[in-house]
Specification:
Elements (H helix, E strand, L loop, with lengths): L5 H16 L4 H4 L8 E7 L4 E2 L3 H11 L4 E4 L6 E2 L4 E8 H32 L17 H10 L22
Antiparallel strand pairs: 1-5, 2-4, 3-5
Amino acid sequence: MEDWPTWIVDRYIERFLQEDVGVGDLTTQGLGKLAQKKIQADVVAKQEGVMAGGQFALRIFTFLDPEVRGEIVVQDGTTFRPHDVLMRLSGNAGAILTGERTALNLLQRLSGIATKTKEMVGLVQDLGVRIADTRKTTPGLRAFEKYAVRCGGGTNHRLGLYDCVLLKDNHFL
């Protein structure tokens, strides 16, 4: 996971799932024995974009059930087209259904950032400049969103207030 220790990623994923699943996925639980069925599922693109966060999305499923197997078909930083299979999954239906929305939300957000970044990078490619991000990120998602910027060919400016001095007009009291 791009040099991200699994325990750090798991800490985020646990929080993401707690927010979405809470005490349990009532709909999937209502399926009874059908939720134990072994299934195969594909994550398919609806529109063109740049992949970002595939390994994080896959980890959501394996976090829920270590026996879920997945293949990331389109690697991060790679352009995809509508109807391309981005990821293939197989395993317990309950785990795949429970993790689906959380994984797709993260994958869509990060791929959206990577796609827009690549678009901006393309606009300035002949000007000798770089596209850099800011700290204006979604609370709790900064590390993921900055990763997505890199997937789109952009540069990270600074991670937080702790790694660079930046004086702006509001600092001149």
